[in-house]
Structure formats: structure tokens, C-alpha cells
Design a protein that fits this description.
One of its GO terms (biological process) is regulation of RNA metabolic process. It catalyses: 4-hydroxy-4-methyl-2-oxoglutarate = 2 pyruvate; oxaloacetate + H(+) = pyruvate + CO2. This is 4-hydroxy-4-methyl-2-oxoglutarate aldolase. With 167 residues, the chain is α/β, with parallel strands linked by helices. It has a single domain, classed as Ribonuclease E inhibitor RraA/RraA-like (Glucose Oxidase, domain 1). Helices cover 18% and strands 33% of the residues. Strand 3, helix 2 and strand 4 form a beta-alpha-beta unit. The longest helix has 9 residues. Bound molecules: oxaloacetate ion (OAA).
Length: 167
């Protein structure tokens, strides 16, 4: 897929004076695991605490270039995304996944044609109890992310905006 080139640094330079809260930057701490390092799209937002049932359900639906943002509560005890989910998300046209929590199957994630950011890795998978809240605002990395916000991720960081910022 051809991508408009954007740079989160350039976006920050352009919007540094925006004190409205429309332009936010996630605090550092998210690492890149997917085969795509540079991705963007409108956010689908999910809160899922050590249960990835809804992550799996959403990645099985058409992504249409959107980015799945998962507030996993920062859990360092379970992995919310693994190789199968990443491949499925890529196949269904998701641009990326941002996980406030852990992922696993690092080699498979690296081979998947999708952007993945997460706090770390953990080899233990989550429960599958069907819990989780879809389409809710979350607060991760010190900022709010709301359904429909735009996400821009590259090697320098992750920007959240209430509107599209690329040309
Ligand atoms: O099944 C899970 O919970 C996560 C996983 O390992 C995968 O996506 O391959």
C-alpha cells in the first residue's frame, strides 16, 4: 500500500503551539514489533485487560486502513497480540495495532505486514473470556485516545490527533 510520507517530528514542529488538546503525543515506551514501522490511520479503541477475545474479534473484521488501539492496562503479565492475530489483522487490512501492554511471537510479528507498537513482550497468552470494551475513550501514554482519533506512528514516536494531519 502506498503511504503518504509523514514524520511525527514534522507533525510536532507544525503543531507545537496547539494547546487545545487536539494534538497529543504518547509518552515514550512503545517499541516497534511489526513488519511495518511507519503507519497511520483512524483509531478503533478497545479496553482489554488480560483478555484478548475482542482484539481477536476486531482483527477478524475488515480494517480498512484503521489502527487498533488497545488499552491493556499496561499489563506485564500477559500478551494481548501474537503471531496469528497479527497475520489476521494484516490480511484484513488493518494498518497497525498499538498495545498498551505486551505482545508475543516476536519473530512472527516482525514478518507480518502490519505496524505493531507495544510496551514489551511476554510469552504468556491472555484469557479468552469475551471481556473488553469496544469504542471507549482510553488514557494511555499520558494522553487520551478516542475512537476516530488519527494515529501516526514512526520511529520517533506516536502522535494522536482529533483530525487527519497528512496531505
Ligand atoms: O492466541 C493468542 O492469545 C495470541 C497468540 O498467540 C496469537 O495471536 O498467535
Amino acid at each position: 500500500m502506498s503511504q503518504p510520507r509523514f514524520s511525527t517530528c514534522d507533525l510536532c514542529d507544525t503543531h507545537e503551539g496547539d494547546v487545545s488538546g487536539a494534538f497529543r503525543v504518547l509518552a515514550p515506551g512503545y517499541h516497534s514489533y511489526g513488519g511495518v514501522r511507519h503507519f497511520f490511520g483512524p483509531a478503533v479503541v478497545l479496553r482489554a485487560l488480560e483478555d484478548n477475545s475482542k482484539v481477536r474479534d476486531l482483527l477478524a473484521t475488515p480494517g480498512g486502513g484503521r489502527v487498533l488501539v488497545v488499552d491493556g492496562g499496561g499489563s506485564m503479565r500477559r500478551a494481548l497480540v501474537g503471531g496469528n492475530l497479527a497475520v489476521n489483522g494484516a490480511k484484513n487490512g488493518w494498518a497497525g495495532i498499538v498495545v498498551h501492554g505486551c505482545v508475543r511471537d516476536v519473530a512472527e510479528l516482525r514478518a507480518a505486514d502490519i505496524g505493531i507498537r507495544a510496551l514489551g513482550t511476554h510469552p504468556m497468552r491472555t484469557a479468552k473470556l469475551g471481556t473488553g470494551e469496544v469504542d471507549v475513550p482510553v488514557q494511555i501514554g499520558g494522553v487520551f485516545v478516542r475512537p476516530g482519533d488519527w494515529v501516526y506512528a514512526d520511529d520517533d514516536g506516536i502522535v494522536i490527533s482529533d483530525r487527519a494531519l497528512h496531505a
